[in-house]
Each structure stands twice: as structure tokens, then as C-alpha cells.
Amino acid sequence: MARPREFDEEVVLDAAIQCFWNRGFEATSVKDLIERTGITAASLYNAFGDKRSIYQAALDHYVEISIGARIQRCETLPPRAAIGAFFDEILRRSLTDKEHKGCLVVNSALEMAPHDPEFRKSIARVLERLEAFFLGCVETGQADGTVSRSAPPEALAQHLLGVLMGLRVLARVRPERALLGGVVSTALVLLEPRKGLT
């Protein structure tokens, strides 16, 4: 009979997230993970597998507790307000991140996706989930008149996804309120219904 784990998996994954988030995949050693998580190498490997598998588990956990939770919160709002609230949270996180770590998904897209097909697919699924959230908001907003019909909903959703990705990269090197706020406000203006184009 398998022995029960002597650690809280969620706590360990939270610690692994911080480790990878601060240093990236390549620069993080197993020793770093052991020190940060407080468990042995054997426990880490038994629970998650090799470093790459630990990274995937940490990334999946990050997606659920960060992106998934944000989408869930915003989906309870009217469509136009949902998009605004989503970007408000991103702005707040970007401006209060003293270490300028950015988004772990975007960081992974830049570090891992170019040379790792499996990670590329995994990250693409997260981006598709974000795009689907924006698309749902835009379609509902266009139907109730709170979002402009000047462009197809797919195009607006893709634009918002691009704005989000660009915002997260910008925030790593220029976390300036005026710059990031300007990017968001301009994107949101495009959603405003205009006379004759509602």
C-alpha cells in the first residue's frame, strides 16, 4: 500500500511557482526547488517526476489559481464590465509586482514554447482559454448593445488577447502606470458602442 504524502501538494506547488517565476526554468536547479519547497529530492521526484514535470505541474497550478480564478470572478459581471475588471486586475498586479516577474504563462511562452512542442501546446491551450473568455464577453456585449459591433467578435477577442500579452511583457521592463493604463484604456475605447456602429 502506498504511503500517504507527508506534505501539502498545493503548498509545494506554490513554492515551486515562486522558484520558477523568479528564475525561469533553465536557471532553476533541483537544489533551488528543494530549498524553496522544504521537501527532499526523493519526495519531489516521487510526487511529480523530473524537473520538467515539476515545472508543468507548477504552471498548471498557476493557471488555475491565477488565470482561472480571475476568469471565474469576472464572468459573474456584465460583459463590458467583465473585460474592464479583468484588465484592472492585470494592471494592479503589474504595478504592484516589485520584482517585475510578469506572468508565468507569458514567461513560459518566451522561454519554453519556441523549442518545446509539448509546452507550446500547453501554453496555446491557456491562450485559447483567455481568448474564449474575451470572445464570450464580446459576443454577449454585442448582443446586448454594450460592446461595439464595428468589428467581428473574433477579431475583438483576438485583439484583447494581444493587448493582454503585450501588457504583461511591457510590465516587466516598463511598469509605468501611464504607459500600461494608456494601453488598456485605448483597447477598451475600441469596445465602446458608437452611433451608427453599435
Strand content: under 5%
Number of strands: 0
Radius of gyration, in Å, reads: 19 Å
N- to C-terminal distance: 64 Å
Give the uncertain stretches in residue-range form. none
Structural class: mainly alpha
* Secondary-structure element pattern, one letter each: HHHHHHHHH
CATH class of the largest domain: Mainly Alpha
Structure commentary:
By secondary structure, the protein is an all-alpha fold. It has 2 domains: 1-74, Arc Repressor Mutant, subunit A (Orthogonal Bundle), CATH 1.10.10.60; 78-198, Orthogonal Bundle (Tetracycline Repressor, domain 2). It is built from 9 helices and no strands.
Name the features.
mainly alpha; 2 domains; about 200 residues; 9 helices; elongated; Tetracycline Repressor, domain 2; Arc Repressor Mutant, subunit A
The gist of it:
The protein contains nine helices and no strands. The protein has 198 residues and is an all-alpha fold.
Q: What secondary-structure arrangement, pairings included, does this model have?
A:
Elements lengths: L8 H19 L2 H8 L3 H8 L2 H24 L4 H18 L7 H8 L5 H28 L8 H21 L3 H13 L9
Helix pairs in contact: 1-2, 1-4, 1-6, 4-5, 4-7, 5-7, 5-8, 5-9, 6-7, 7-8, 8-9
